[in-house]
Amino acid sequence: FLQAVLLCRITNDPEHSYGFLHRLDTPSSGLILVAKTYEAYYDLKMQLGVGALVRDYIVLCHGSVLPSRTEIDAKVYHWRHEGNLPSTVCRKGKPSRTNLKVLAYCTQGEERFSL
């Protein structure tokens, strides 16, 4: 698919994993990080190696998030060997920090959403 859509040399190079670098946030969405150039491949690989990769997402969540809520700081545990269970917050989880900003609210019938 990438070879047909991107038309980049790296997507044909098995020594560089066809441009594939990482599956981001595996337990939640499984987004895939792909480089379109060799320069981007090595730059992203370095960022991943030193933990400097910044991830920005836009999320639609059920319920109302207070506008004063700007950070979530919790230990998140990923169930690797117990099947396809959702991640959970608990003491044995890995430290995780998420900065957030509520952009909008909407409703559908009785249900409320935050963006």
Task: List strands and helices in order, with pairings.
Layout: H1 2-6, E1 20-24, E2 31-34, H2 38-50, E3 61-62, E4 71-77, E5 88-89, E6 94-99, E7 105-108, E8 111-114
Antiparallel strand pairs: 1-2, 3-8, 4-5, 4-6, 7-8
Low-confidence stretches: none
Oligomer: single chain
Shape verdict: extended
Distance between the ends: 31 Å
The main β sheet shows up as:
3 strands, antiparallel
Total number of strands: 8
Largest sheet, order of strands side by side? 3-8-7
Helix content: 10-25%
- Pairing-aware structural class of the strands and helices? alpha+beta
How much β-strand is present in the residues?
A: 25-35%
> What do the pLDDT scores average to?
85
Radius of gyration: 18 Å
Descriptive report:
- The structure is a single chain.
- This protein is of the alpha+beta class and 115 residues long.
- Helices cover 16% and strands 30% of the residues.
- The two termini are 31 Å apart.
- The strands form three sheets. The chain has a three-stranded antiparallel sheet with strand order 3-8-7, with no helix packed on it. Strands 5-4-6 form a three-stranded antiparallel sheet, with no helix packed on it.
- The mean pLDDT is 85.
- The chain is extended and about 50 Å long.
